[in-house]
Structures are given as structure tokens and as C-alpha cells.
UniProtKB/TrEMBL annotation:
The protein's name: Glycine oxidase
Organism: Pannonibacter phragmitetus
InterPro entries: FAD-dep_OxRdtase, FAD/NAD-bd_sf
Keyword Oxidoreductase in annotation: yes
Molecular function terms, GO-annotated: oxidoreductase activity
Keywords linked to the UniProt accession: Oxidoreductase
Oxidoreductase as UniProt keyword: yes
Family annotation (Pfam families): DAO
GO cellular component, one term: cytoplasm
Length: 349
């Protein structure tokens, strides 16, 4: 490892890595690359980082809950996420767990969720009231995933951007940086849904969300409400604001939220607590989650699957962008370092 680092430090003066895309995948990759001592430029067509799918995310770092629908790899890779984020953007990670609830008539949903996931214990009405006093008396049983965490993606993206600038990473924003490849030793595509049609095998999964504002209730942690048709979660953002998400629609349409989705999201929020019925809708938005057929994010290194002029892509983050960006950024940085050393004729790193 030490040998690899000394070979890398020989490269770092002469090699610039261009990261296209300043969403969670791009910023995490930029951090891991700069930790290796490489010069990094991040280019994004938006005027500021974090304005793609990352803008709409719940920011849940919930590897055990996600295992309900995802394979074991998501749990394995996601375990390090909360620690990585805490180190990267200190003070922004809340480690209060996730509460999973369901109405009494849907108890079978809770049993199914419990059997398909791990890292939880059953909670009764008293324990639910202790965890979330606002929900006292409303639910008889639930699951508590106490090791899970969450963050506010918008605060995290801004903090990471500032941190990267302070470390010397160059940002080219509002700029597609066409032609910048010729100045870079290596190009990594992190353009999220922008890579659909350019990175082979990607599709879009539309996710609609809204922000509610109410002083009537407060929550300490993300609460997932199971429902056979419209499972939903509510993530507290502080200041009486709650992010309510999210639809899962097979489409790469990032256009305005539909009336039907607003009804589904607000109905389920109302089922969690009637105070949400009087809350103000302060924001509606839709993001497109980039996904491969197996919904598993990955670093793509095969040139025939990549756009011309691109060496690697961190792609298909699906519904795991914040959860899996740390692990994939590390993989991408290691692969980038290896490629750079190979290109310089240092073929045995
Ligand atoms: C409603 C919703 C809720 C979610 N909740 C969670 C959650 O709780 N936890 C979790 O882990 N994940 C969650 N996700 C998933 C997560 O948001 C995505 O996986 C993640 O944001 C994808 O990140 P990305 O960096 O790949 O793409 P993006 O965030 O879309 O970033 C791509 C960037 O590339 C830029 N770009 C595009 N084309 C170009 C180009 N040609 N040149 C330069 N720049 C370009 C864009 O402007 C953008 O800034 C959620 C997603 C949605 C939609």
C-alpha cells in the first residue's frame, strides 16, 4: 500500500482527473481522488453542485431497510456510509435510526418487511411513543433499525463542495467543459441521469417528493410507513419541515409532479399523522434515479460501454446514491490510480 502511494505521489504533479458531474457520485469521487493526492477538476452543467437527482433525495443512510428490496451487496457496501459522511461533512449526520410502521390492517406488510431485512427489533406502542412522542397511540407495533442514519442532502452537498474547494479541487460550473478531456489524464463520468443513453444499460426511475411544513408535530428520525400500494417515508429536516417521498415510476421524465402523486404522498402522510393534513406544501419536485437492470450501482470500466473520451463511470446509483457513493467513490479512485500508473508504464502497482 505504501509502495502504491509513493508511486502515486510521483504521478500527482502531472495528472489531472476530470470528474464530469457534481452530484453525490461526482463529489464523493472527487474527495476520494483528492485524498490520493491527485489534482481533480469537477465540471457540471448546473450552476452549483447537487442540483440533479441528489437535490431530491431523502438522504437516508439505511442499509438494513434497503435490504428489504435490494441484494446483500447494498447492505455490505452501505455499512460504511454513515462514518464516511460524518468524516466528510462533520456535524451533518444524524444517527437516530429508522422507524418502520404500518397501519393495523397491514400487519402482514410489517411481517414481510421484518423477514426480508435484518438489524431491527420489534417495538410496541409504548416504545414507539418513547421514540416519537408525536406518534403516541397511533401505531401498535413497528420495527426499529437503531443503527441507521440520515442527513440533509442539500446541506451535505454544499458542505462537501466547500470542503473540496478548500482542498484545491477546481470546479467548472455552468459549463459542460467540452474539450477539457484533452487536458485531463483521466475522465470519470458521474453525470447521473445525464448518462442514460450514454452509458450502456442505464434507465431512469422517476421519484417524486414534496416538502411539508407544520409546527403541529415533530419527528426525530425518518419514519417509513408500509402500505401495499404506496409505501412512503417522512424525513424530518428541522424547523417544522418534512421531506415526504417518494414515488417509484419507470420513466426518465423529470417533469413536474403529477396530481395523482401529490394525492398519494399527502394521503399517506395524513395516515401517519393527521397534522400533515393541515401542513403547507412548500415544495414539489421530481428527480430521475439512474439505474441498471439489476438496480445495483457500479463503476463501469469497459470502454465499449462508455461514451467516447471517458475512462470510468460511477453510474446507476438508483435509490442508493447517498448510501453507496462512499464505497463506489473509493472503488473509482482506486481504479483511477491503477489506470494512471498503468498509463505511465508503472504496470505493477
Ligand atoms: C425522490 C428521491 C429520493 C431519494 N432518496 C434517497 C435516499 O434517501 N438515500 C439515498 O442514498 N439515495 C436516495 N435517492 C437516490 C439518489 O438521489 C441518487 O441515487 C443520486 O442522487 C444519484 O447521484 P448522481 O451523482 O449519480 O446523479 P445526480 O445527482 O443527478 O448528479 C449528476 C450531475 O451531473 C450533471 N450533469 C449532467 N449531464 C452533464 C454533462 N454532460 N456534463 C457535466 N455535468 C452533467 C448534473 O447537472 C448533475 O449535477 C433518492 C432519489 C430520489 C429521486
Amino acid at each position: 500500500m505504501r509502495q502504491t502511494h509513493s508511486r502515486l505521489s510521483r504521478l500527482s504533479g502531472s495528472s489531472t482527473v476530470l470528474v464530469r458531474g457534481a452530484g453525490v457520485a461526482g463529489l464523493a469521487a472527487a474527495l476520494e481522488l483528492s485524498r490520493l493526492g491527485l489534482a481533480v477538476t469537477v465540471a457540471d452543467t448546473s450552476p452549483a453542485p447537487g442540483h440533479g437527482a441528489s437535490f431530491y433525495a431523502g438522504g437516508m443512510l439505511a442499509p438494513w431497510c434497503e435490504a428489504e428490496t435490494a441484494g446483500p451487496e447494498v447492505l455490505k457496501l452501505g455499512l460504511e456510509a454513515a462514518d464516511w459522511w460524518e468524516a466528510a461533512v462533520p456535524g451533518l449526520v444524524s444517527r437516530k435510526g429508522t422507524l418502520v410502521l404500518c397501519p393495523p390492517r397491514d400487519q402482514s406488510e410489517l411481517r414481510r418487511f421484518a423477514s426480508r431485512s435484518s438489524g431491527h427489533h420489534m417495538v410496541d406502542a409504548d416504545a414507539i411513543a418513547e421514540l416519537e412522542p408525536a406518534l403516541a397511540g397511533r401505531f401498535m407495533t413497528g420495527l426499529f433499525f437503531e443503527r441507521e442514519a440520515h442527513l440533509d442532502p442539500r446541506l451535505a452537498m454544499t458542505a462537501l463542495w466547500q470542503q473540496l474547494e478548500a482542498q484545491g479541487v477546481t470546479f467548472r460550473l455552468g459549463d459542460a467543459a467540452q474539450g477539457a478531456e484533452s487536458e485531463a489524464s483521466l475522465v470519470i463520468d458521474c453525470t447521473g441521469p445525464g448518462a442514460i443513453d450514454r452509458v450502456q444499460g442505464l434507465r431512469g426511475v422517476r421519484g417524486e417528493m414534496l416538502y411539508l411544513e407544520t409546527g403541529e408535530i415533530s419527528l426525530s428520525r425518518p419514519v417509513r410507513l408500509l402500505h401495499p400500494r404506496h409505501p412512503l417515508y417522512v424525513v424530518p429536516r428541522g424547523g417544522g419541515r418534512f421531506m415526504v417521498g417518494a414515488t417509484m415510476i419507470e420513466s426518465d421524465d423529470g417533469g413536474p409532479v403529477t396530481a395523482r402523486s401529490v394525492m398519494e404522498l399527502t394521503n399517506t402522510a395524513y395516515a401517519l399523522h393527521p397534522a400533515f393534513g393541515e401542513a403547507r406544501i412548500v415544495e414539489l419536485g421530481a428527480g430521475v434515479r439512474p439505474a441498471f437492470d439489476d438496480n445495483m450501482p457500479r463503476v463501469v470500466a469497459e470502454r465499449e460501454h462508455l461514451p467516447p473520451g471517458t475512462d470510468l463511470a460511477v453510474a446507476g446509483m438508483y435509490r442508493h446514491g447517498f448510501l453507496l457513493a462512499p464505497a463506489l467513490a473509493r472503488q473509482a479512485a482506486d481504479m483511477a490510480a491503477r489506470r494512471l500508473m498503468e498509463n505511465k508504464g508503472d504496470a505493477n502497482p
